[in-house]
Specification:
Length: 183
């Protein structure tokens, strides 16, 4: 068992498959770092393997909002005491060890080129990386969730951790997806 695992992602919004990956990482580690990418809207840039990930529509929730959603979900699953949530700017690899120590094992679920490129970049930076191949047919897409959220389709509620449903509803009531660039 390693002392520290890490899962990186945008978590726009966090969903059930994110929690599943956190649990997998914690089977092999004492503690988990949840590293939230795209924390700073000014630092986003196009990525060849994922053309949408820098756009406002793909990033409707702030780092602060995502950290709150993740914290609620992790606490409800009993994982809160074993986790730390940090910002993790993928555009600045030199700063990565300031947020996630190099001895952390990175867990990446790969569905396509973007995730494989991210795993390779993490390995080049000095992290041990475990790549879990994802089944594209069973993938829960945060892009699809954002479409449901923007359209007012209540089906999104079944795909997110139960502890985040009320928080997401409050966030959307205060600042709807259309105002967030996501609708």
């Amino acid at each position: 068992m390693s002392a520290l695992a890490c899962v990186t992602g945008r978590f726009q919004p966090p969903h059930a498959q994110h929690l599943e990956l956190f649990a997998i990482a914690l089977r092999d580690a004492e503690r988990l770092v949840v590293a939230v990418t795209n924390p700073d809207s000014a630092a986003r840039r196009p990525e060849p393997a994922s053309a949408h990930r820098h756009t406002p529509a793909a990033n409707p929730f702030t780092y602060f909002e995502r950290a709150g959603l993740l914290g609620a979900a992790l606490e409800a699953e009993g994982l809160g005491p074993r986790t730390t949530i940090v910002p993790f700017d993928l555009t600045r690899p030199a700063t990565w060890p300031e947020y996630v120590p190099l001895h952390a094992r990175q867990y990446v679920r790969a569905y396509g080129d973007w995730e494989r490129d991210k795993a390779a970049a993490l390995a080049v930076a000095g992290y041990a990386v475990t790549v879990l191949e994802g089944d594209p047919a069973g993938r829960l897409s945060a892009s699809d969730l954002r479409v449901l959220l923007a359209g007012g389709d209540e089906a999104w509620r079944a795909a997110v951790p139960p502890a985040t449903v009320g928080l997401l509803a409050e966030l959307l009531q205060a600042f709807p997806m259309a105002q967030r660039g996501g609708g």
